[in-house]
Specification:
Blueprint (H helix, E strand, L loop, with lengths): L11 E4 L8 E2 L5 E2 L5 E4 L5 E3 L3 H12 L13 E5 L2 E4 H12 L7 E5 L5 H9 L4 E6 L5 H5 L4 E6 L9 E7 L8 H9 L2 E12 L15 E2 L2 H10 L2 E7 L6 E8 L11 H28 L3 E4 L3 H9 L6 E3 L9 E2 L2 E4 L9 E3 L4 H10 L6 E3 L8
Parallel strand pairs: 8-9, 8-11, 9-10, 11-12, 16-17, 16-20, 17-19, 20-21
Antiparallel strand pairs: 1-4, 2-3, 4-5, 5-13, 6-7, 12-15, 14-15, 18-19
Helix pairs in contact: 2-3, 5-6
The structure holds zinc ion (ZN).
The site of zinc ion has 8 residues, from loops.
Length: 382
Amino acid sequence: MTRCHVCGSSNVDRLPQDGMPFRLVSSDVQPVVGTAEYLLCLNCSTVQKAVTAEWQAMADGIYASYDINHQSHGAEPMIFDTAKGSGPRSMILLRNFLDLVDLPRQGRLLDMGCSNGNLLKSFHALRPDWTLSGYELVDTWRDTVLALPGVEAFYSGPAPGYEGTFDVVSVSHVLEHVRDPAAFLQDISGRLGPNGRILVASPDLRQNSIDLVIADHCTHFDEQSLSYVVDRAGLNAELLSSRLLPKELVAVLAPQGTARAAAAADASAAKERCLFYFRLLEEVRSAGRAAAAEKRPFGIMGSSIAACWMKLELAGAVDFFVDEDPHRVGHTLTGLPILSPAQVPPGALVFIPMSVAVAEKIMDRWRDLPIDFRFVASNRPI
Ligand SMILES: [Zn+2]
C-alpha cells in the first residue's frame, strides 16, 4: 500500500501528469534517467513523490556522485536584492537568522548537509569564535570541510555519533530529501543544548514549481506542509517565512514542552495548485520546443534546474546555456558551454524557462543586446 512518507496516512491521491511524464534533474543539476510518481496526501496535504524502492535507488545513485554547484566549481549561488542585500545564499540566510536570534559570542554549530562547507564559511565570517561541525551523507568533502577555519569535526554516514550538544543545527536544503522529515527534525532536537535552535531552509513549491522535477526531492514543501512537519516533530516555529530568500522557505525552530496535535490542512486546494504547476510546466515545455524549432543558434537562460530540465525536455536541441553569474560563465553544463549574455551570438534565440517576474528582469538588464528572448507569459507560480 502507498503511504504518505510525512504522516504515514494511506489516504493519498495520485496526481496525473498529462501526456509524457516529466523528465527529472538531480538537485546537483545533472540529467537523471527515469520519471516519478506524484502524490498528494489527503491527511496532511503534502505534495510528494512516491518513495518507492525505485525512487530510493535513483536518489542513492545521485548522492553517490554528488557534485554540488559544479557549474561554478563549487561556489554557491549568489542572490540579489533581498532585504539583507545581495551575496552568497548562505550569507543572506544567516544574516536573517542572526536578526531573529541573539547568539552568544561562543557556541557550537552543526551544519547538516554541509557539502563543501559554504554555510560553515559564511557562519565563521559572522561568528569567528564558534566551533563548527559538518554532516554529510558521504565523505567526499571530509578534507575540504575539516580544513575550513573554526571547524572541529566532520561526520558522515548513517550513524554519525555526534559528540556533545549543539547550540544551532542548520538544515539547509536537506528536509526535502528525507523520507520522514518530522522524525528527522525530532532526532535533531534531541541534540540541542539549552536555548538551542534549528535553522531550516527548503525550496518553496508555491514560489518555484520547477522543484517538482528535482529527482531527489521527495517532499515539495510550502508553508502549510512545513508547518505540519514542525508541529508533528513537537517543535515550535519562532519563524516560518517564504519572504526572506527568493524561492525558499526559512524557519527557525525551538523545542517545546509537548507536541500539539497537527491540524490537517486543506487537501483539495493543495491538489488544485499542484495540477496547476503541472500545466505550467507543460506550457513551458511546449513553448521551449516551439522556440527550439524556430531558429538557430538557440540557447537556454540559466544553468540550474530549470535550464537543465528544459534541455532534457528538448532532447538536446540546444546550442548553449546563458548565465549572468560570472562564476558560471566559461564552464559547461551537460557538455554545453555556459555563455555570458554578452557572448551570445547576435540574433540568437534565448529561451527563458523561469517565471515572468524573473524573465522580465533579465530582459530588462540585457535590452541593449541583440538577443531574441522568449519566455512564457503565463509562467506565474503565485
Ligand atoms: Zn500525509
